[in-house]
Design goal:
This protein is mostly helical. It folds into 2 domains: 77 residues, Glutaredoxin (3-Layer(aba) Sandwich); 115 residues, Glutathione S-transferase Yfyf (Class Pi), Chain A, domain 2 (Up-down Bundle). It contains 8 helices and 4 strands, in the order βαβαββαααααα. It has a 4-stranded mixed sheet, covered by helices on one side. Helix 6 packs across helix 7. The chain is globular and about 45 Å long. The protein starts with a strand and ends in a 5-residue tail after the last helix.
Length: 204
């Protein structure tokens, strides 16, 4: 399989790390939706990262949909979603919070770096900032102490997505979302980023 996209995208990175935890072989192609638009368009005309090209040549997009596909390729003991309904609901809650925080982070990064200052809309910025801080405030409570994995003895998708989202926000908006205000997430991130699957998939 081929994973297309840059690892500075948290969505691409979450898929790449998940592939490694699942033990699925893949080739990563660092193609940028900005700098290599035509190259990306030749693979996926929608130019959406991440894009996964399956072994049979099917082109998939959207990190969540790609991960749902990958879950069907591996044995139950390599899957990253819990089986029990209550645990699954909690996992989906954590993933939803992390993805919401990630989405709001991306929106602010684009607003500040791509839109001219005179065209930035402060009420919109304030709204997105509030959503971002709320998502991380609730996620901080969900993480607990930050010293254990969320749903068992090994990291699952909820752990991966929470850690990847936090690292992205800290690398782009650390002045807004302060690590000191989120000690559990900070500890959790350090623990996750020390794993080989994370270390071998740096966002830089």
């Amino acid at each position: 399989m081929r994973l297309i996209g840059m690892l500075d995208s948290p969505y691409v990175r979450r898929v790449a790390i998940s592939l490694k935890f699942m033990g699925l072989p893949f080739v990563h192609e660092a193609v940028s939706v900005f700098r290599h638009y035509d190259t990306f368009a030749a693979i996926n005309p929608v130019v959406k990262a991440p894009t996964l090209v399956t072994d049979d040549g099917t082109t998939l997009m959207d990190s969540t949909l790609i991960l749902e596909y990958l879950e069907r390729l591996v044995a139950p003991d390599r899957r990253l979603t819990p089986v029990g309904l209550d645990e699954y609901a909690r996992a989906q809650r954590v993933v939803g919070l992390a993805l919401a925080a990630c989405e709001k982070s991306v929106q602010l990064v684009y607003e500040f770096t791509l839109r001219p200052v005179e065209k930035q809309h402060q009420p919109w910025i304030d709204r997105v900032r509030g959503q971002l801080l709320s998502a991380y405030r609730v996620l901080e409570a969900e993480i607990g102490s930050g010293g254990t994995w969320l749903l068992g003895e090994r990291p699952l998708q909820a752990d991966i997505t929470a850690a990847v989202s936090w690292r992205f926000t800290q690398s782009t908006l650390a002045d807004l979302v302060k690590a000191a205000d989120h000690p559990a997430l900070s500890m959790f991130s350090v623990r996750a980023e020390a794993l080989s699957e994370f270390l071998s998939t740096p966002p830089d």
